[in-house]
Structures are given as C-alpha cells and as structure tokens.
Amino acid sequence: MSEQIYSLWQRMEQGWANGDSEAFAGVFAEDVDFVTVRGEELFGRRAVAAGHAQLFAGPYRATLLTAEISLIRPLTDGISVVHVTSSIAPAGITTHAQAVVVQRADGWEIAAFHNMIPKGTS
C-alpha cells in the first residue's frame, strides 16, 4: 500500500517537472475536492488540471516540485490520510498538504486535497 501511495506523489512530481498539467492532475479522483494554497476550492480533476496549466505557463514555468510524505495513516481498508511537505524550486516555496487517498479497482487516487503555505514560510 505505502509504495502505491508514494507513487502518486512521484507521478505528481514528474507531471510538474514536465509542465504537464494533465499528468499532474492524473493522480486525483475525477471528483476530487482540492483546496489551493490561496484557499480557492477546485472541484474535479479537470479544474485541477486547468488551474495548474495556468501555473505551468506562468509563474511556475520550469520549476521543480519535490514532495516528502511524513505520514500515511490508514483509516480503513482502502482509505488513508496523508501529510506531505512539498518544495517548489527555484521559487523557494514550501507547502504542506493533507490528502485523503482512496483505493479504487485500478489503484489509489487522491479524493481530497488541502494545500497551504505554513505561517512563516513563503
């Protein structure tokens, strides 16, 4: 299970590195609830892809995302809470996310994602 959950963030990092918003968003459920670092609510994988396409074309063009999972806490068989700290280089931004991941017939995906910039960081 852990390896499959880690692979979600590896795929996310790769999509970010390639500036590929569809690949980045591909780890999220079709009906994901996604809260951005600015507190904006995005509903659905399409909205996540569209929002990140704008980021990859603008302020985060040619940046790298590095994710570090600090917690995987199973809630039930097939549902876990995940805590992740991510860094965006060379922008110098650190974020913290809490995600709910669920196991589907074809693997794990992120069903809910709340991302924020911790106080005192940028």
TrEMBL record:
Transmembrane segments: none annotated. Residues 7-110 form the DUF4440 domain. Pfam families: DUF4440 (PF14534). InterPro entries: DUF4440, NTF2-like_dom_sf, Steroid_delta5-4_isomerase. Gene3D superfamilies: 3.10.450.50. Coiled coil: none annotated. NCBIfam families: SgcJ/EcaC family oxidoreductase. This is SgcJ/EcaC family oxidoreductase. It comes from Lentzea miocenica.
